[in-house]
Write a structure and sequence with these properties.
This protein is of the alpha+beta class. It has helices spanning 30-39, 60-67, 98-105, 132-135, 278-299, 318-337, 430-454, 463-470, 473-488, and strands spanning 11-13, 17-18, 24-25, 44-46, 72-78, 92-96, 123-131, 162-167, 171-177, 181-188, 191-196, 206-212, 215-218, 239-243, 248-251, 256-261, 265-273, 348-349, 354-355. β12 and β13 (215-218) form a beta hairpin. α5 runs antiparallel to α6 (318-337). The radius of gyration is 22 Å and the shape is globular. The N and C termini lie far apart (52 Å). Residues 341-408, 410-437 and 447-458 have low confidence and may be disordered.
């Protein structure tokens, strides 16, 4: 069986309808779309929700005309199938215009262009994380071409969005976002998404090196995993979907994802939707930042590039990080004062494992529970009636052989992964889901043991080894809760 091959396909939300005179009618009103987004606990695709957005026509050629000669930064990576993830710290970068990128992507670049050192057949280019407010700083009217208000977020447009432009093979390493949930609008070309539920975190071998605020990376190249080094990954539940132009993917909070461009040119627009849980998550991130920066700076004060993601441009001094932590804690309490506090429960040890209890700090907030529940409310309580119907359809499971371990655009047959026995993971009963959570927590100890057995001669504990324990997401959650409790007494 291929690693992480037990999977379900994300739900696809209805294909829309037509009015009496043939006019397209969106399948969901904004209020209903938001209700789905705020309650759905598994990835899903919205169809026929953006057909009237002006941004629907934002292909790379159009954007090159809008930006007319503006130079943007492209991340350059190798089209290789190494078992090691291509983190941003290992990539090179090129400043170029979209016109130059398009010329290069057509394999027509001259030896004098900015991409002259990068053979198109061996490299990919990715202009990622391009915030609209910086990219279109002198063309703010263009913000209105993106209408997230159709999904129930009034006033939200391009100003709260980022742009992604890539060539064939461009990808982001597998990671989870600490804050919010994600809406991704595919404009041009197709992208393949590999997603893993939050309870698979121990099987993804999380690391904070390279460090980037709000991004927890996996040590694994999920399309070509090293199963000898990371045997627990075989237990991960891979979900796969190919996102096509005109579709919007919803990625729930804390779902791991690896995203790759599978067409010559891809353009995507996304927006991270803030959630109540983000207030505590910012405290956790501030703790992480302080620990990572302190230990890594002490180890090598002159070489931050080796561990600090290029996206991090703020100062990393201890004084600045202390201010950052205090600001996050203050913001947390400011929010608590305007919200009804229900209860704060700490994590406790039951002698065998860490048992995760709910940390409810608002009447509608749940912290610490990140299970893959199938269409439940944000508080974990089941809906009174099933929301499925003509406009909310689960995708049927398909029985087919899983792709090879080498997967990806350079070794995959393009087929989606499915669960071996056809069971939709989201339909598991509570007892079964709790057992999976218990197994996930137990895997942390197994992970440490497996590392020891696979490399018995490596007894030296590095700074990164220590950090992987200290800033493990489960550990920082405990620290944040204790910190909040101490300030509350």
């Amino acid at each position: 069986m291929a690693a992480g091959s037990e999977a379900t396909t994300p739900v696809i939300l209805a294909t829309g309808a037509e009015g009496e005179e043939g006019e397209h009618v969106k399948p969901f009103m904004p209020e209903k779309a938001k209700e789905i987004i705020m309650s759905l606990q598994q990835p899903a695709i919205f169809c026929n929700m953006v057909f009237d957005w002006p941004a629907r026509h934002w292909d790379a050629k159009y954007l090159s005309e809008v930006l007319h000669g503006k130079r943007i930064r492209f991340r350059m990576g190798m089209k290789s199938m190494s078992t090691v993830p291509q983190f941003e710290t290992t990539c090179s970068y090129v400043e170029a215009t979209l016109e130059e990128f398009l010329t290069w992507s057509c394999d027509q670049s001259s030896i004098s262009g900015p991409f002259r050192d990068y053979d198109h057949s061996k490299f990919w280019a990715y202009a990622d994380y391009k915030y609209f407010v910086s990219l279109f700083e002198d063309k703010t009217d263009i913000f209105q071409d993106v209408k997230w208000s159709d999904f129930g977020f009034p006033g939200r447009n391009g100003q709260e969005s980022t742009l992604w432009i890539g060539s064939l093979g461009a990808h982001t390493p597998c990671h989870l976002d600490s804050y919010g949930c994600n809406l991704v609008f595919q404009v041009q070309g197709r992208k393949r998404w590999h997603l893993f539920p939050p309870e698979d975190t121990p099987f993804l071998y999380p690391t904070r090196i390279p460090y980037e605020e709000s991004s927890v990376f996996s040590k694994i190249n999920v399309v070509n995993p090293d199963l000898k080094r990371f045997p627990q990954f075989q237990k991960a539940q891979r979900h796969m979907v190919t996102l096509s132009p005109g579709q919007v993917l919803f990625v729930p909070r804390h779902w791991w994802h690896y995203v790759e461009s599978i067409d010559p040119i891809t353009v995507s627009i996304n927006s991270w939707i803030e959630l109540e849980e983000d207030h505590l998550a910012r405290v956790e991130e501030a703790i992480t930042r302080m620990l990572v920066c302190a230990l890594k700076t002490a180890e090598n004060p002159q070489n931050t590039r080796a561990w600090l993601n290029p996206t991090e441009v703020e100062e990393t001094s201890h004084a600045v990080n202390c201010c950052y932590l205090n600001a996050a804690v203050s913001a947390f309490f400011d929010h608590c004062r305007t919200s009804k506090v229900v209860e704060i429960q700490a994590l406790r040890t039951d002698g065998e494992r860490m048992k995760k209890e709910e940390l409810n700090v608002y009447n509608h907030m749940e912290v610490g529970q990140t299970g893959s529940q199938n269409l439940t409310t944000g508080t974990g309580k089941p809906e009174a009636a099933s929301p499925f119907g003509p406009d909310l359809l689960p995708v049927a499971q398909r029985s087919e052989e899983p792709p090879s371990e080498r997967g990806g655009i350079f070794g995959s047959d393009g087929k989606d992964f499915v669960d071996k026995d056809g069971e939709h993971f989201g339909k598991l009963h509570c007892a079964e889901r709790q057992q999976i959570m218990n197994n996930s927590e137990k895997a942390i100890k197994e992970q440490i043991a497996s590392n020891a057995t696979t490399a018995p001669s490596q007894t030296f504990i590095s700074t990164d080894d220590l950090l992987d324990c200290l800033v493990n997401p489960q550990v920082t959650r405990i620290v944040a809760q204790l910190l909040i409790q101490g300030r509350s007494l």
